[in-house]
Amino acid sequence: MTRYTTVIAAFALTALVNTVSGVARPPDDEPRGSRAQERQDRDAERATERANAAAGRAAEDRAKIEERAARDTGRAAEDLAKIDAEKTRDETKAAEERAKIAEDFAEDAAKEAEDAAKDAEDAAEDAAKELAELAEDANDDSGQKGSSAELRDLARTESAEHDADGFPVRRGEVVAMDLPAEALIAAQAKGFRLIERQKLEGLDREIVRLAAPEGLTSMRAREQLREIAPAVVVDLVHYYGLNLTAGSHGKRIGTKALTIARGSTSLTVGMIDTAVGKHPALGKARLVAWPSGNLPTAPLEHGTAVASLLAGEGSATIFLANIFRGPASRPFTSADVIAQAFEWMVSSKVPTVNMSLAGPRNAILDRLIRDALLRGVQVVAAAGNGGPTAPPAYPAAVPGVVAVTAVDRDKRIYRYANRGSYVTVAAQGVGVIAARSAGGLAAFDGTSFATPHVAGWIARCRAKGGTAAACRDQLKAAARDLGPAGFDDTYGHGLIE
């Protein structure tokens, strides 16, 4: 155990001792009787008062009768016998009441002892769990990196450059939207070389990829192209990754049935993610794959899990756009591929699109997503797993996108979830049971696994004829408020159950 984790353990155990000791002693540390003892003392005092009052009345009655005894001996004897009988009844009743008080005290004391033991057990469990989480944070930084920050690792595999914030971009390349012919000619005169022109028919846009002039970095080439065409949207080709943390790869579990569709057979939803493997959980869904995403070595795990969750929401038709490549532990994609996938979704008239990727803000993707929103396509995206202090994750933070954060079964925020004013709603995303690409089921953690539930909610609303804007408003109204009253940066508008 490292010195850091030893300190953490000592801190957590000290907190545990204080917590457990607090069960039996009030804040001022002055001894105080239990509630059962207080109730017994109170009831016994009242019983004694009632018995004394009855005895007093009997004594007064006896004195009056004895006073009349001289005048009417027979009547006095009869009255005295009646008083003695009533006294005996009162004494018997008082004894029964004292016995009942003692019985109640024993029951209350036993219940208090049981509650105290349970409180101590809960406190010990909470402290142990906190200690384990702190130790994991100290020894494993995979979750801390989370979200888009992990993309900095791509520098080793892609020979990437980096933007001003340290995010990887494709080396020696820039991209422009709807670049006029005269601007392209001027750029070529400055040494830019045309790589590709991508016509996005569904979005009525054209993406132009250009190689930077010899000797210029991508950053400098972007600035030079903006000087040539100041009215044109120009940016770098950013890389994007999945919202991965330690729990994103799933913990295999035994046989357990997935939640099956909620009744609708007419739902349609799109999914921009990894590829999807064959699995019984997807047997009743109609899967439509993006032809350009059928890579033989495409990663399968994340997409298979997300697709099974969408199928469980009642999505009878799922449009699948695999945009990722690379190892299953670190799949990645780029802005130009995302643009092509969006074009396919819009052209296929998919009303709701689920996205699990995260990365830096990109001007080209911002514009394309807003174009899609204007055409009635609702994007639902994972809010990110970068942690409470991470910057906003895109595309979730693009205005109009429904950004989904994750909570556990106890409605506590997922510890790696991003925070921010862009968070729209929360859904369960910890310990979510979903399909494994290798077969069977697993429990997954992360905002990616909360997002399908909300995408399904939006898809059901759209299937009933609701517009994207109307369904967003209904979603916010349906959310159960968590945390501080009203909207907040942790839970957004609240929980979608």
Description:
The protein is an alpha/beta fold. The protein has three domains: 14-131; 149-241, Alpha-Beta Plaits (2-Layer Sandwich), CATH 3.30.70; 246-478, Rossmann fold, CATH 3.40.50.200. Helix content is 43%, strand content 18%. It is built from twelve helices and 17 strands. It has helices spanning 3-21, 35-69, 73-139, 142-149, 155-158, 181-189, 218-228, 301-312, 335-347, 363-374, 451-463, 468-478; strands at residues 161-162, 168-177, 193-200, 205-211, 233-242, 251-252, 268-273, 286-289, 317-322, 332-334, 352-355, 357-358, 378-382, 402-407, 425-428, 432-435, 441-444. The strands form three sheets. Strands 1, 2, 3, 4, 5, 10 and 12 form a seven-stranded antiparallel sheet that branches. Strands 8-9-7-11-13-14-15 form a seven-stranded parallel sheet, sandwiched between helices. The protein is rod-shaped and about 140 Å long. The protein starts with a helix and ends in a 19-residue tail after the last helix.
